[in-house]
Structures are given as structure tokens and as C-alpha cells.
Design a protein that fits this description.
The chain is mainly alpha-helical. The protein folds into 2 domains: 206 residues, no CATH class; 142 residues, no CATH class. The protein is 52% helix and 3% strand. It is built from 12 helices and 2 strands; from the N terminus they run αααααααααβαβαα. α1 packs across α5 and α4 packs across α5.
């Protein structure tokens, strides 16, 4: 089960529009032409996105503290005084892309650095590396999915004409202040977003898009949800929207049952599981350089699940099929513990997709 497609495509579209706005205005970013011409435009955008990511990667490697901007960027020179890493963090925050990635936890630093430099790396540089990995995934999704969905919907589907990006990051700008280069850096980057041309969708295409993939929250048979909380493609907020819709449906169902004189609560048919990354997992070489050759951390990347986790879900589904209900209690917790990195926590709520805010 997946979230409605519109909120997810808003995330991807915001990430792609952010890359276009800050780093390469020749990216079309949607509203692709019909037929072979549109396919060529989309593939050209994909090349440009990865060219930007490659340029940023090289700049980060050369000087992670104040990396240069890609040559394709057309932002004012005054904005280029802000490190390009901060613009990339802004793209992640405004779109809702996680700031924990396959190799960067946004909390650790090389032990070989002086203590003061370790703090700077933790607060300003590690999050930028995480954004570099994750925004690449989100933007690639945006190009490929936008082209496909525009063909199905009959027109442009991403619209940010009314989006208030300052409101989007109203709280997060303080949490990630160092990564955004402080209040002045944040204000400068927001000024670029405010002054840049926006993307406008076709109203008819947007309505058609809503019919292509949606959910009502009505879950009548045992169902299991499982995702990594730092998945950069179908983010944790994607799963949370399904959780919230079902919670509202279940509450209405219980209210109707009580009104009808029923005393037994309706069955909870939705088992929600989460895959959390470790608190610290970034690896470094003896010289202090981040090591991205190691495997992606659990809870990161798209559908980055282990064989034991897949088998656990298969066992849980088999139990539900045999018993007409999801496994619960000690048996469930034991199953999850043995599988590793699977969490059942009724008190956890992932951040909602940005679509539901501004």
C-alpha cells in the first residue's frame, strides 16, 4: 500500500525544482513535450541532475566547509558567497527529503579532527553530505516519475505557484542552522526561492493524477506496513499518511459501532513497522575522509531491507492468512527482534509529507 501519489510527487517535484533553481536553470523539470521529444527532454534532465550532483560531489571533496557552486548555477554572486552545501541542505529541507542517508548520519565526525572542527563537521558538513546522497535519489525519481505520470495524466502535474518555502522550513531552519550557514545564509537562499519562476500544473492533469493512485484508509483485512525512516524516495511520511488515514477510519468505525450498541472494538487490521537507522553510522578512513564504499546503513536508501526482514514479513503475512488477524504481543516482538532492525512502536509518528503543510 502506498500514499496518494500527489503528496509524494510534490516532494520529488520540490527537490527537482530546487536543483533547477539553485544549480542549473536549463533543467526543464516537467511539462515535458509529447512523444519522443518529451522522452529526450526527460533523459536530458536526468543527465543534468547527475551532472550537478557530480559537480557538487567534487566540490565537497575539494573543500567540504566552503564547496564551490557548479558552473551551471546562475544565482547572484552574493548568494554564491554562501557555501553550495547549504543550498543543497535547503533543497532537502524544503522538499522533505531526509537528512540521514546511506552513509551519512548527520551526527558524527572524524575522530582525527580537532574537537572544534568535529562540532563543525557534525552540524554543518555531515548533513550536507547526507543531502547530496538523498537529493540525487529524489530528483531522479522526479524526472522519471514526472515524465511517466504526465503521459498518464495528460499534462503537467507539479505546481508550486502557491508554495511558501519559508513556511516549509520555519522550524527546521533553527534545527539545521549551521548546515544552512546561519540566519543570513537561510535568508539569502529563501530570497532565491521567492524570486524564482514557479512551475504551474494543468488543473485537469492534477485531477487525473489523483485517480491514478490513492488510498481511502479502509483496511478490512490484516495488512503490514514497513519502511525505512530515512528512505529518500518513498519517505517515512509516505507510510505515515496511510497510518493516519486508517486511524481516522478506525475511529469512525468504532464510533459507529458504539452508537449501534456494540461493545467490542473493531479489529486493528494494520500492523505498522519501522526500520530506524543507528544513531551514528558514518565511517571514516584513517585520514578522516568519509568512507562511502561500505554498505548502506539499515533504515536508509529505498527499500533497503535484509533477507531476514523480508522473511519476517513473509512469516507475519502467513500468520495473518492462517489466523485472520495480525500477530501481536510477545510473539510479534520476538519475531521482530530476531529479524533485526524492525520496530513496532505505537507512539512513533513520522513527519508528514510537506504537501500537507504549505
Amino acid at each position: 500500500m502506498a500514499s496518494d501519489i500527489t503528496p509524494l510527487m510534490t516532494m520529488a517535484g520540490d527537490a527537482l525544482w530546487g536543483i533547477k533553481t539553485f544549480f542549473d536553470p536549463t533543467i526543464k523539470g516537467g511539462n515535458y513535450s509529447a512523444g519522443a521529444a518529451g522522452y529526450a527532454e526527460a533523459m536530458g534532465d536526468l543527465v543534468k541532475v547527475f551532472t550537478v550532483i557530480g559537480s557538487l560531489q567534487a566540490a565537497f571533496a575539494a573543500n567540504a566547509s566552503t564547496p564551490a557552486w557548479p558552473a551551471t548555477s546562475k544565482v547572484p554572486d552574493a548568494i554564491k558567497a554562501i557555501p553550495s552545501r547549504s543550498a543543497l541542505v535547503m533543497v532537502a529541507l524544503m522538499s522533505g527529503v531526509p537528512l540521514q542517508s546511506a552513509h551519512f548520519d548527520s551526527t558524527s565526525a572524524p575522530s582525527v579532527l580537532p574537537v572544534a572542527s568535529q562540532t563543525s563537521f557534525q552540524l554543518a558538513i555531515n548533513p550536507a553530505f547526507a543531502a547530496l546522497e538523498n537529493v540525487a535519489n529524489a530528483a531522479a525519481l522526479a524526472v522519471l516519475a514526472t515524465h511517466d505520470l504526465e503521459l498518464q495524466a495528460g499534462g503537467a502535474v507539479f505546481d508550486n505557484t502557491a508554495t511558501n518555502y519559508a513556511a516549509r522550513i520555519a522550524d527546521e531552519q533553527f534545527i539545521w542552522s549551521s548546515a544552512l550557514s546561519g540566519a543570513s545564509g537561510t535568508a539569502g537562499l529563501l530570497s532565491v526561492l521567492a524570486a524564482s519562476p514557479r512551475a504551474k500544473a494543468s488543473p485537469a492533469a492534477v485531477e487525473k493524477l489523483k485517480t491514478l493512485a490513492s488510498h481511502s484508509g479502509k483496511v478490512e483485512i490484516p495488512t503490514i506496513l514497513f519502511t525505512g525512516v530515512a528512505d529518500p524516495v518513498t519517505t517515512a511520511g509516505n507510510q505515515q499518511s496511510v497510518v493516519d488515514d486508517y486511524a481516522a477510519y478506525w475511529a469512525d468505525k468504532w464510533a459507529a459501532a458504539k452508537k449501534a450498541g456494540e461493545r467490542k472494538r473493531p479489529a486493528n487490521n494494520q500492523l505498522v513497522l519501522w526500520n530506524f537507522p543507528p544513531e551514528k553510522y558514518t565511517k571514516y578512513s584513517a585520514a578522516g575522509a568519509p568512507d562511502t564504499t561500505v554498505a548502506a546503513a539499515t533504515g536508509t536508501n529505498h527499500c533497503n531491507f535484509s533477507t531476514s526482514q523480508y522473511m519476517a514479513v513473509a512469516d507475519l503475512l502467513a500468520y495473518a492468512a492462517d489466523n485472520g488477524k495480525n500477530m501481536s504481543g510477545g510473539a510479534l516482538l520476538t519475531k521482530l527482534r530476531k529479524a533485526g532492525n524492525m520496530t513496532y512502536d505505537r507512539g512513533y509518528s513520522a513527519p508528514r509529507l510537506k504537501f500537507y503543510g504549505n
